Amino acid sequence: MRNYRTSILVVLILVTILNGQSSFLARVGAESERSKVYVVYLGEKQHDDPEFVTESHHRLLWSLLGSKEDAHDSMVHSYRHGFSGFAAKLTNSQAKKLAELPEVVHVTPDSFYELATTRTWDYLGLSAANPKNLLNVTNMGEEVIIGVVDTGVWPESQVFNDNGMGPVPSHWKGDCESGEMFNSSHCNKKLIGAKYFISAFLAKYESFNATASLDFISPRDYDGHGTHVATIASGSVFPSISYKGLAGGTVRGGAPRARIAMYKACWYHDDLEINTCSSADVLKAMDEAIHDGVDVLSLSLGSNVPIYPETDFRNGIATGAFHAVLKGITVVCSGGNAGPEAQTVSNTAPWILTVAATTLDRSFPTPITLGNNKVILGQALYTGPEVGFTSLVYPENPGNSNESFYGTCELLLYNSNRTMEGKVVLCFTTSLLSSSVSNAARYVKRAGGLGVIIARHPSFVRPCLDDFPCITVDYELGTNILLYIRSSGAPVVKIQPSKTLVGQPVGTKVASFSSRGPNSVAAAILKPDIAAPGVSILAATATNRTFNDRGFIMLSGTSMAAPVISGVVALLKAKHRDWSPAAIRSAIVTTAWRTDPFGQQIFANGSPRKLADPFDYGGGLVNPEKASNPGLVYDLGLEDYVLYMCSQGYTESSISQLVGKGTVCSNPRPSVLDFNLPSITIPNLKEEVTLTRILTNVGPVNSVYKVVVEPPFGVQVTVAPETLVFNSTTKRVSFKVKVSTTHKINTGYYFGSLTWSDSVHNVTIPLSVRTQILQDYYDEN
């Protein structure tokens, strides 16, 4: 029957052609103007051979377009692994005809042109719809290799498909290492390398049973974290993914045609129920990556304070990153999830690009209707059925009972079942941990409750197990609900499914968990460097951690923000192959948004919420398009890094060990304030200081820049000269900055900025200054 219908369709198409209603010759001539990419979804595969599946896609297009050549030219991608489908260049009428075929589930315009990794890339201005933007002029980073050091990779995920990709870059020297459920066949022109490093882990955990472990002794990912971050950095385009109707769209990475090399150095310990990464294993992984020829190294891992100094070999990431940077490899690291407390940022070495996490311009309002008809909007990822009006309770002693009641979320399990059974429960928590939400939901569900409302500090949302209704509100809204409960004789509540709100009026905020500066190792080195979206990011994972059988999950953390920057770095590297890692970092920092993309102020979540400053987000929110054309950069080389280590008081022997040659520091030692960073941070200003910066022109040869200063409160800043002139013989120009304070007491940090502008480029660096008239270790500032 299907063949008969197909034959009839072919006859009809041929009749249409003969009648001249839609001339295919005319279509070919005007295709660039009239056609666009559509995704044709065919459901489950009908054959295990991917080549056979692709051929079936070609035959289907052939039946529509009338020739094998037209079908080949129209085909963009063939989805042939996890499911069957393809992307093709079609007119609107052709797409409608395909949609009418019985074997076609649906045909949709390719969201590749509209959405990115759950909004991230569209939000940052990297939509594929603009043919002249950074994404397209670099061919989506195809010649760049991103090395990821993490928990491994799930190679079957469609985000690692290599449809339409050219040969592996010639500078690649790595390979795919075989192991448990993994061999060279799992690699392709997208996932070009995969290795694993476990020796140091095994040496530390001698009781670890490799045979019985849930983890795979191979590059294969058990946890899913590595697959997730690799997807964000460079996942191939995968259409029509959503979280149960929320946060949907096309999933892809920042540089979707860049190549991925996975270096597994983090392992799941079954007895401890944790993932851990030996510094020695990480260092070995980075060493291999340097050898293999990666262009970017992405590490979504780190350590908590106290942090080992950069010259301490136990700081494997800093050590490996140093050698990578000297080889021209940009190293991108997460800043940590210990926020919002100050001085918690990790991966602070000045040669590392350290990333903070922000929210997107997206929220998930979830209506809570009280019995008095007042509607409160909480936040949740609840997609289940509406919970009709049902009893609402806050567990507290009504005054006439000997029973104990607990309204704190962490203590809900100590309530009797009858207190919560068949009811929606309100609780309060001061914890910033996401587990406080999931645990509260588990306690209520176990007692037979129907839902839980958690009052807490503003934070990101995550789904609860089995889509149990768990809605978060802030303390003010929580208190309003509590007052209603206490004033009503029979309080009731209705909970509706969550909705998705995108764009204004949703504001961008630095995530509460994102670790903050100032730098605890070297206060004069601003960390983090930059911020990127890292809250509720939808990306691929290992199938044992997925919310559906297609292998995707929504996660939050600076782990998710770092690969966003890695993807941007890959695009910059593709456009500017001769730029050093420091130049790339400078371009990203000096062009960042200090507001959100809509011009609204960026706040930092915490207690209390405040306007974001450089210790929250470094230079600001990454602006990829602007970063590709910064005008000027603050560059660094080996000599600069040696001067930095000398200024920090590191011994000459430790510096020599790190750089691999004898080093003698000057006497007196240099000032760390002269280190040529794209920022100026003065942690202990008392007397007037003068510091130096050097700018390198990477824009028009003949350029003139003028300075604009926004001084921190109570701080005087003068710059000399006030004009910088670049030409064919003058490509690097230095300037001096004189800083003094009018404060008469110790202060906290105040913030400002210094911008060089030629009316086209605005090269902005943050100023962070703290007055310290008297060093006071008990000063809370």
TrEMBL record:
Gene3D superfamilies: 2.60.40.2310, 3.50.30.30, Peptidase S8 propeptide/proteinase inhibitor I9 (3.30.70.80), Peptidase S8/S53 domain (3.40.50.200)
Residues of the Peptidase S8/S53 domain: 141-597
Keyword check for Hydrolase: yes
Entry-linked InterPro entries: Peptidase_S8/S53_dom (IPR000209), Peptidase_S8/S53_dom_sf (IPR036852), Peptidase_S8_Ser-AS (IPR023828), Peptidase_S8_subtilisin-rel (IPR015500), Peptidases_S8_3 (IPR034197), S8pro/Inhibitor_I9 (IPR010259), S8pro/Inhibitor_I9_sf (IPR037045), SBT (IPR045051)
Highest taxon listed in the record's lineage: Eukaryota
GO biological process: proteolysis
Active site feature: 150, 225, 559
The Subtilisin-like protease fibronectin type-III domain, residue ranges: 674-769
PROSITE patterns in the cross-refs: SUBTILASE, SUBTILASE_SER
GO molecular function, one term: serine-type endopeptidase activity
Limits of the Inhibitor I9 domain: 37-115
Pfam families: fn3_6, Inhibitor_I9, Peptidase_S8
Signal peptide residue numbers: 1-20
Entry keyword set: Glycoprotein, Hydrolase, Protease, Serine protease, Signal
Family per similarity comment: Belongs to the peptidase S8 family.
PANTHER family: PROPROTEIN CONVERTASE SUBTILISIN/KEXIN (PTHR10795)
Protein known as: Uncharacterized protein
Organism annotation: Microthlaspi erraticum
